[in-house]
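Module 6 notes. Inverse folding takes a fixed backbone as the condition and produces residue identities as the prediction. Think of it as a translation problem where the source language is geometry and the target language is the twenty amino acids. Below is one complete input and output pair. Work through it position by position during the lab.
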């Protein structure tokens, strides 16, 4: 049966560059001497500035709430102003973030390349609609609830486990993270 993680399972920690605080939703350790093999987190971004540097890490970032931000990487600009539109980039890229209009909430999946890979898919459910998931690989499902008082929920599925998630009367957005560890665990 899928394991549900909630607020008491999550850890708030300072950003590597000291510019804010991240709520870590899930972490898998690394056997390679890195801080983690996989990390899923959310952060409230309240000011413009540089991103932390994560060599050897692949990142998938998306806006969840707020007007958004503009990222400058390798002299190219990427505007994230549409919620739940993932942007993948290498953690060793020099990234500068400029807020478009006030605080934002973002969602981040970071994977050490030696550990494996992660793939993110987004599903928008209509009120009462059910998302049925049967996992053949390790998987994480995050259900987004709106508002500052909303508490995040994350389900961990091992291969062969199933889960049905229903949207409430306002609908729901699901972030489905499929994991591809190199060692197959």
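Target side of the pair, the amino acids:
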């Amino acid at each position: 049966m899928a394991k549900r993680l909630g607020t008491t399972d999550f850890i708030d920690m300072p950003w590597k560059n000291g510019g804010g605080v991240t709520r870590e939703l899930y972490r898998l350790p690394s056997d390679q001497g890195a801080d983690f093999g996989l990390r899923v987190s959310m952060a409230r971004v309240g000011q413009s500035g540089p991103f932390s540097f994560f060599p050897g890490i692949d990142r998938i970032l998306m806006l969840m709430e707020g007007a958004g931000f503009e990222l400058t990487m390798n002299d190219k600009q990427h505007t994230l102003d549409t919620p739940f539109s993932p942007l993948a980039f290498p953690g060793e890229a020099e990234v500068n973030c400029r807020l478009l209009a006030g605080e934002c909430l973002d969602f981040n999946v970071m994977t050490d390349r030696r550990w494996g890979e992660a793939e993110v898919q987004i599903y928008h459910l209509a009120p009462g609609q059910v998302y049925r998931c049967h996992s053949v690989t390790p998987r994480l499902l995050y259900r987004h609830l709106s508002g500052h008082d909303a508490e995040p929920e994350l389900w961990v599925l091992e291969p062969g486990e199933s889960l049905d998630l229903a949207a409430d009367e306002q609908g729901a957005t699901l972030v489905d993270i499929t994991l591809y560890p190199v060692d197959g665990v």
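Reference fact for the lab report: The chain has a mean pLDDT of 88.
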